[in-house]
Structures
1.
Amino acid sequence: MSKIQDALRKIQSVKTAPVEVVAIEPADDSASIGQVVDERDATGIRIKPTDGGLVMVNREMLRDAGYLAPMEQERHLAEQYRMLKRPLLNNASGRGLEMGEEANLIMVTSALPGDGKTFNCINLALSMAVEKDVSVLLVDADVAKPHVSQLFGIEQQPGLTDLLKDKGRDVDSVVLRTDIPGLRILSAGCHDEHATELLASRRMEKVLGVLSKAYSDRIVIFDSPPILATSESHVLANQMGQIVMVVCAARTPQKAVLDALDFLDESKPINLIFNQSASRLGAGEYGSDQYGYGSRSTGE
Ligand SMILES: Nc1ncnc2c1ncn2[C@@H]1O[C@H](COP(=O)(O)OP(=O)(O)O)[C@@H](O)[C@H]1O
Ligand SMILES: [Mg+2]
């Protein structure tokens, strides 16, 4: 635990402003960076209707929306994600910690909203997708604030909630391919007032079982709701193989981090990202001294 305590002390020491919970507004249309394109042959007939089309990942629009580093800091941030992804990939492939078959299910969460879950999910998924022999499925499981779906322009596509409501639907029918060969994406699905119950349902357990077993060669990254603001995140966490907890270095109060950690099963690898989140991007916000990494599971 000492590394975590050191890290938490560091969070405390860099906390310069009173605690502030940032409520992220849904991205508006102009921030939508993805475009779903139907695959059609020369005659205009859809080739693979069940695939629901191909999602085009537009990095420039992602960058403009604040979810990729500015060009001049891209290389530096890429290095940070290289360090972050390695142990996660090793654990998932059986070369790291001894884990169950759900090791490939990775939940990205945080204590509070606005800590940087979506930012880190997207960057982690993109970083993993460039690996040879690794394919990634990015799941928008933050159904109340489906920012991944909005950012990729797929909020109208059937997704997780539809899969959970409709027992006849199979996973493949809602997973969308992207123009990045190693990356697929599952939208949050249509808005449902019982989304919380759906995420905590037996059907969700089954879906997760399918995702981890049938796609054992695939890393599944879940952009998840915050631990202290929702109850479904606890249920979700119990079923994951690995957990990545994002701590906003300048904002998340130490107590919130400790309270959130208390909800998580200590037997699972829990990785902390100390994220310098900012509501507006500017030079220096991605600096290495503001971004760290620790793991409770190793006890280092
Ligand atoms: N490392 C970072 N550097 C710069 N901006 C960031 C970083 N992490 C998050 N942000 C910004 O902070 C805000 C909240 O991040 P987001 O990932 O949407 O939080 P969450 O998903 O936890 O609610 C967004 O505007 C995002 O662009
Ligand atoms: Mg989010």
2.
Amino acid sequence: MKKKIVVVGATGLVGRKTIEMIKEYKLDKNDISLFASKNSVGKVFEINNKNIIVQELNENNLFKEKYDYALFCTPENISKLYIKKLVTLGTVVIDFSSMYRKEYPIIIPEINLDKANESIICNPNCSTSISLMALCNIHKLFGLKSVEYVTYQSLSGAGHKALLDQKEINQKDLRKLDYVIDNNLIPYIGEIDRQGISKEENKMIYETKKILDDVNIKVSATCIRVNVDICHSISINFTTRKNVTLLDIENALKNSLNVKYVGNDFSKLQPRYVKNKKDVYVGRLRKTELAKNSFSIFVVGDNLRKGASQNGVQILDELIKRSK
Ligand SMILES: NC(=O)c1ccc[n+]([C@@H]2O[C@H](COP(=O)([O-])OP(=O)(O)OC[C@H]3O[C@@H](n4cnc5c(N)ncnc54)[C@H](OP(=O)(O)O)[C@@H]3O)[C@@H](O)[C@H]2O)c1
């Protein structure tokens, strides 16, 4: 039976990629509706040979129909306004924002799909999602003791306005980033708290423990915005609880689902190569002298695919399969 699916924030970077993923995962035969702000009303997307017109997001329009599933590709404040009410109407919601990540399960299908049993399901932070694809099998086999992230995050991670800013660098009024990114990088992402930790870094710390279901892992993160359109890259140092060799780690990475271990083939560890790839790419594996059982890896993933829309649509696909 056809499901009724609504994509809210359909015109943004995550929304557009979500429509693409709905097609790729062959879910486009369902009954799809699209919403965005009033500025986007009338935009048209072709889905399953039908032209679907974007509607204005407001209570009257959104709540007039009953949806089986909703994908919220919107900022936190919009998620907050609409999601709980939709849930009371019987809709299962997948939210890409960080609004409900403390209260509800955060799901990466390759890791913790068994926890996707609530009416609100959160998609993780993009850098966390990409990093944990590489770390989850290592944690399962050897137990992670500590993880230290340094991220190199693309402009698309900050939404379509940030991408636009780079293309139209002289239009200062359009710039969403706090600083000029041209020939530059920005050494923090999100507000800084009293301890000097940024919002993005706090997300990575909290979500790593929650998704791996282990509060004892010590996590630190430094998140950097770089002048790259798409793909987040993450340098990760980690230590394991069990005694392991470099080969043990290499084998764990080679046996990780939807991860391509590329060793020192540096050409495949670059955003330009990984952009629009389904898998997460991992290499530059080496031991460090910082501690016993301490290793470094470099991870690159498409933030709009595994970092967002692909992960969310994988969840949707599983929920629909379960309901049959
Ligand atoms: N970008 C990433 O890599 C990434 C990864 C993981 C999670 N996320 C999260 O996913 C969400 C969407 O991110 P994005 O990068 O796609 O942002 P974006 O490109 O800025 O798109 C935002 C979407 O929300 C809609 N929207 C904004 N304000 C609205 C309002 N007042 N009423 C109705 N619709 C409104 C926009 O509609 P209009 O086009 O009409 O303005 C647009 O469709 C955010 O919560 C973000 O944190 C993003």
